[in-house]
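Minutes, project check-in
Item: structure for the 119-residue chain
Input as provided by the requester:
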Amino acid sequence: MQPTAGKAKFTPGPLQSDSIMKGGGADYAILDSDGCVIGEAFQFLGKRNGTRDAQANAQLWAAAPEIYEALEDGRERLIKIAAILNGGELTPAKRREAYTLAYDGKQTAALAKARGETP
């Protein structure tokens, strides 16, 4: 049976990332559509004496709402495609069968995690 999805509670997109330092730098801010900072990605880890790619992390974070939307849309499209390939009419039994074919659990788990429904 297809899980019931909750409402996403994260900051809606579009988001963008921008260097915190004038002229570019290693630390990045994640900005909402109004230009307000909602998070930061830092280059240096501190205690572990290592570094990470703050720009890449900030870009991934900024893309998260669009990634979520694409994943959610793709999951629904796969269910519909599977139903069409399995005879068309979406009876409850056909919906379950199509869902089983199109769904491996990873999409729903990722979407639920983004909504804060899983640890």
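Outcome recorded: Helices lie at 54-85, 92-102, 106-114.
No further action items on this chain.
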